[in-house]
């Protein structure tokens, strides 16, 4: 049995009761944190909370060579953990299909996601969101300016009056730009998280200076939500990660009121349909 378990949005206590019980029942526990992570807890915190050793795998160990995970699931109960929900944004459908092809039973224990939290924190209605996109670091995509994967999604959603959720890039075990070319050593490698001020500047300069909403640390005790023109958001410090942006589409009057009241959006930027 291979059980995919979402850990929720913030720390070791964000997991559902069902997820906690499934981890307790597992013979082995694997996890990945390259697609997202719990900023309020590390692996040691999770191990103490669940009283289980957790075997962390990198992207290669999950997407290209998951044999140890699958072999363990053929003979016992395996839990596979990710931040958020394992099948929303941190999707691992390929691993599940590989398990099914080998006759391994699979199960999903869902958890809150950044998508649902963004809707709840901003007051924007979830069914008025279109396709989401991820804004990569400028050094990570190889294109001049913003990649079409971002601008096309924004254009399409805005043409249809829909909101756009913009995930911000995460690089796990990444060599910062200034250290590249200094050798093959792992020295200097670290995790990088795009912040909302950087993302706002990239979009304001490479796309259009429009209304956007910053959502920082969704699921934590101290989330932060601020709305303004992208150029106005570029100079602000939104604190610790994780951050994301929402570009609103057409606004229902309740959504406009929510952005003004909950996110401090200037009223003159709130055009109601």
Report on the architecture of this protein:
- The chain has helices at residues 17-25, 43-50, 59-64, 67-75, 93-101, 114-122, 138-141, 148-159, 196-206, 230-233, 253-263, and strands spanning 2-6, 28-31, 55-56, 78-82, 106-109, 133-135, 164-168, 170-174, 190-193, 211-216, 224-229, 243-247.
- It is an alpha/beta fold and 273 residues long.
- The chain has two domains: 2-109, Cobalt-precorrin-4 Transmethylase, domain 1 (3-Layer(aba) Sandwich), CATH 3.40.1010.10; 114-269, Methyltransferase, Cobalt-precorrin-4 Transmethylase, Domain 2, CATH 3.30.950.
- It has a five-stranded parallel β-sheet with strand order 3-2-4-1-5, sandwiched between helices.
- Strand 2 (28-31), helix 2 (43-50) and strand 3 form a beta-alpha-beta unit.
- The chain starts with a strand and ends in a 10-residue tail after the last helix.
- Residues 180-185 have low confidence and may be disordered.
């Amino acid at each position: 049995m291979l059980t995919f378990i979402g850990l929720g949005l913030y720390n070791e206590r964000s997991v559902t009761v069902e997820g906690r019980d499934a981890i307790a029942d597992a013979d082995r526990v694997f996890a990945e944190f390259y697609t997202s992570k719990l900023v309020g807890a590390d692996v040691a915190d999770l191990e103490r909370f669940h009283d289980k050793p957790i075997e962390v795998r990198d992207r290669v160990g999950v997407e290209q060579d998951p044999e140890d995970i699958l072999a363990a699931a053929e003979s016992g109960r395996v839990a596979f953990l990710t931040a958020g929900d394992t099948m929303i944004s941190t999707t691992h459908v390929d691993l599940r299909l590989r398990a099914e092809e080998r006759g391994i039973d699979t199960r999903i224990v869902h958890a809150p996601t950044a998508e649902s939290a963004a809707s709840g924190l901003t007051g924007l209605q979830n069914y008025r969101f279109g396709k989401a996109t991820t804004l990569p670091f400028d050094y990570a995509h190889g294109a001049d300016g913003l990649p079409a994967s971002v601008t096309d999604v924004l254009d399409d959603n805005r043409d249809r009056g829909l909101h756009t959720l913009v995930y911000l890039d995460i690089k796990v075990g990444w060599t910062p730009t200034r250290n590249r070319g200094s050798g093959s050593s792992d020295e200097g490698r670290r995790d990088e998280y795009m912040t909302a001020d950087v993302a706002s500047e990239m979009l304001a300069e490479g796309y259009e200076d429009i209304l956007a909403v910053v959502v920082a640390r969704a699921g934590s005790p101290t989330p932060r939500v601020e709305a303004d023109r992208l150029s106005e958001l570029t100079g602000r410090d939104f604190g610790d990660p994780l951050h994301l942006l929402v570009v609103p589409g057409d606004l229902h009057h309740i959504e406009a009121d929510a952005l003004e009241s909950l996110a401090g959006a200037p009223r003159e930027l709130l055009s109601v349909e």
